[in-house]
């Protein structure tokens, strides 16, 4: 009897001890969409060894295992908890079972109860429970704010990229992964001196935000155009479940990729009704137009400067100025194009001008006819035509000895007439000739010198001929000389601005565009990368050279908001010299 009593007591104590051990599996949700995630915790109230998780065959483990331990004493009683956490993403739809996990505690093996999970079709707003990545994604948003989603062709719109951050998380660092390529737009990034954190709201909740980039776009095509997203990699500090001895949460750093999302705008064509015959694509607000001359009274063969200028707000770099017409007796030289344009959130502002050098050839009064300029006014949504005043040039007689014509049909020759006493002064009446002497010219030193001179010139001619052939055969040297000439012609301004990043890349981009305008005879409004690629390919320029030219244009765009060293600017300049020379050779 005594032995039976001891055995019964041992069973009761063992059963009581076993009843105290708890090992269970808890899922954050048992029903979720295929695009959602769940968290499953395997929790025990006693420390164990040899933890063995289930296989998770129908799920992808996107996080874990994360281990957390809680051990505390309250009123002399010990409370202990140890948890292994996993974050799972379903691989497909269906009903699945998460199998049993195992743990060894004090020599005994404990198993959890299987958990049934139902995976449905994707939901509109996925949630991921307590996953750090989910917390980061819910509290971090990159937004592209577009000023106008229904603009006219060549009307300026702005895209402002803002990064919204919830007060619940912190951002420690960020970098750009993918920059949008505005292939159907003329684009200009606005310089950001420094980033400033501001307070605002996102979907009605308080957020902090920072403006990362401001870009001005001018659509070059009509219809629906896509604006590619800006993509960033952001290091986010997310509060975790663990706390320090003072009760403060430990933060976990998560690298989160965020994108601004694809945006689509609908570009309206300019109205066909009322379009003037001389319209060249100018679009803007309150543009002004004038033609001026630095002087209106001058002598024949003396030069003057006539300026054709458009000022105001609009697509100033994307249209051609009207041509100045002058009378036949006034010689006109190629104009000098000058841009004084700044870009802000309202678009381009400033002025562009062509300055002509004019030289009247004869005396008379010469009118420079009025010049008309047409543009589409965005304020009234109508076409407007501005006409300059007529400029009357009063040309006086040319200086003595030059020809000047009257305003009539006949020309008058104005020539200095000498007096009667001196009009034959140039005729020599008394000669000062001296005799040669008795020595005959034949067989003299001068005779033999002149006779031998052609023979002496033969080796000199051979030497220079070979040198000329060597120069002609030096293909590399000739290419370098030709490249230097092209560089001096198109890239002189860019070379002067080496060291000043903004001015250098603006002048480099302008030089590349001017070269294409001169070589391919295309307008500024056709300067999209696809159009340039198509035209160069049509002229049988090899693909590698075309790619290098496009990369140069992209470098000019990218360098507007990314710092560049003097070495990088020098490399871009040298590459521009090489590419222009190569295109010139092939075209």
From TrEMBL:
Transmembrane parts of this sequence: 445-464
UniProt-listed InterPro entries: BatD
Family matches, as Pfam families: BatD (PF13584)
Species name: Salinimicrobium catena
Record keywords, A-Z: Membrane, Signal, Transmembrane, Transmembrane helix
PANTHER family named in the record: BATD (PTHR40940:SF2), PROTEIN BATD-RELATED (PTHR40940)
Signal sequence interval, chain numbering: 1-19
The protein's name in its UniProt record: Oxygen tolerance
PROSITE patterns: PROKAR_LIPOPROTEIN (PS51257)
